[in-house]
Specification:
This protein is mainly alpha-helical. The longest helix is centred in the N-terminal third of the chain and has 46 residues. The protein starts with 10 loop residues before the first helix and ends in a 6-residue tail after the last helix.
């Protein structure tokens, strides 16, 4: 897909290019979008299950914090191998296998009775999911050039808020029911695990690893995509080794940014339902319905941010501003009086949720400035370092809540993380 900004193109060729871009997007993005919805539903189902598990099993906030975080121990360990397997072997096979395994583990999590069993289930789920996200980011770089990549990534990553928009009301409804004398939270794990297994099987037959293998494209379209992606790598990529990539200041800065941003976002994802439940006193069903509101706004923000970033060809400010908004939201939650209207409190929660609007723009950066093999390792490393925060932040938030009896100390840490992450993005180099 040649860069239309830098050359004059005949109208007939321009139409052919646009049709090819559209055909690729329509073929791949809706399916990947659905897969990531299922991914996040399974990963974060424990956030809503925690409401029922604390009631039925007596698990403390500390147990849930550690249960949410231990997922990332195995998840981090397998990030780089997963990304390399996608680049050097097969995205289709990796994505399919990970979905079938993680769906099975999610369903089996409904059988837990003790904290140790919860920790083991979450550890296994992290190992199962490890290759999925970095694999898809690398996979998108096989099909989309820089002018489309942030939009493609935003379309894929918009599944994060949509998974909560869909999952929050459903989770609240399931938690409020008990079928065959089995608690609702156990049904939640079982019912959310099954779609991953089924879609993993579909992915094996539906996805195509490379444009040259796509029977649904004409030979001229395969050549067009392959040629333009080759030009991108030869003109824009660093010719660096894997070892140099791991020592690169740019890669290390991006990893630090990801750590700070994951620190605030994962704490919010896992603890928001509990915070909303305690503040509002609503039923599980109503908490699920209200909990969808911030993520609906986040979905819109992700799309707009990715579109504006592609149009202006600017990544850094479009990554930083959402994090500054999140920091302001956390500050508002810390300083709010004990009794304020629920609408104002929900607005502050929505602002805090906006930090994740940086994701699609930010993840377009590594594959634009690094060579293919280097980008695969860098993406795995960046996400792995960031995912360490996924272990530390939910646990620390739960620990601070248990020690202080308040969410204020944890929210202060999240505010600092969001603000520091936004600043650090602005110091990241702009080019290769």
């Amino acid at each position: 897909m040649p860069d239309v900004r830098s050359r004059v193109i005949e109208p007939s060729l321009a139409g052919f290019i646009d049709r090819t871009r559209h055909q690729v997007a329509v073929r791949l993005l809706p399916f990947l979008f659905v897969l990531y919805i299922i991914n996040y539903l399974d990963r974060t189902s424990v956030a809503y299950a925690a409401i029922g598990m604390s009631r039925d099993l007596g698990f403390s906030a500390r147990v849930f914090g550690l249960g949410a975080g231990v997922f990332f121990v195995s998840y981090v360990a397998l990030q780089i191998p997963g990304a390399l397997l996608v680049e050097r072997w097969s995205a289709r096979r990796i994505i399919s296998a990970t979905m079938i395994v993680w769906g099975s583990v999610t369903a089996l999590t409904g059988l837990v009775h003790t904290p140790a069993q919860l920790f083991l289930a979450r550890f296994a789920l992290g190992a199962a999911e490890a290759g999925f996200f970095p694999g898809v980011i690398v996979y998108l770089s096989h099909w989309f050039t820089p002018q489309d990549r942030a939009r493609a990534t935003s379309s894929f990553m918009a599944a994060i808020p949509v998974s909560f928009v869909i999952g929050s009301p459903i989770a609240g409804w399931i938690l409020g029911h008990r079928w065959f004398a089995i608690e609702g939270w156990r049904w939640l794990f079982l019912l959310e695990g099954m779609p991953a297994i089924l879609l993993g099987i579909v992915a094996f037959f539906y996805l195509t690893d490379w444009p040259r293998e796509a029977t649904w494209l004409a030979p001229e379209q395969q050549q067009l995509i392959g040629t333009n992606l080759s030009e991108e790598q030869s003109h824009n990529a660093q010719a660096t080794s894997i070892r140099q990539a791991l020592r690169s200041r740019t890669v290390l800065l991006l990893a630090a940014v990801t750590f700070l941003n994951y620190f605030e976002s994962y704490s919010f994802f896992f603890w928001f339902p509990t915070m909303l439940k305690r503040q509002s006193g609503f039923s599980d069903v109503n908490v699920g319905l209200l909990g969808a509101v911030p993520y609906l706004v986040l979905f819109i923000a992700m799309q707009v941010n990715g579109l504006l970033s592609d149009r202006s060809h600017e990544r850094h400010w479009h990554s930083a501003v959402p994090l500054f908004i999140a920091a302001a939201g956390f500050l508002g939650l810390i300083t709010q009086p004990r009794s304020i209207p629920l609408s104002l409190s929900l607005s502050l929660f929505t602002m805090a949720c906006m930090g994740s609007a940086y994701l699609p723009v930010f993840w377009a950066i590594p594959s634009e400035i690094l060579s293919k093999s280097t980008a695969a390792v860098a993406i795995g490393m960046i996400n792995a370092v960031g995912s360490v925060a996924g272990f530390a932040s939910p646990y620390l938030f739960g620990y601070l809540n248990t020690r202080t009896g308040s969410f204020s100390a944890g929210l202060t840490v999240l505010m600092v993380s969001a603000f520091a992450g936004g600043l650090l993005i602005l110091f990241t180099p702009r080019g290769a």
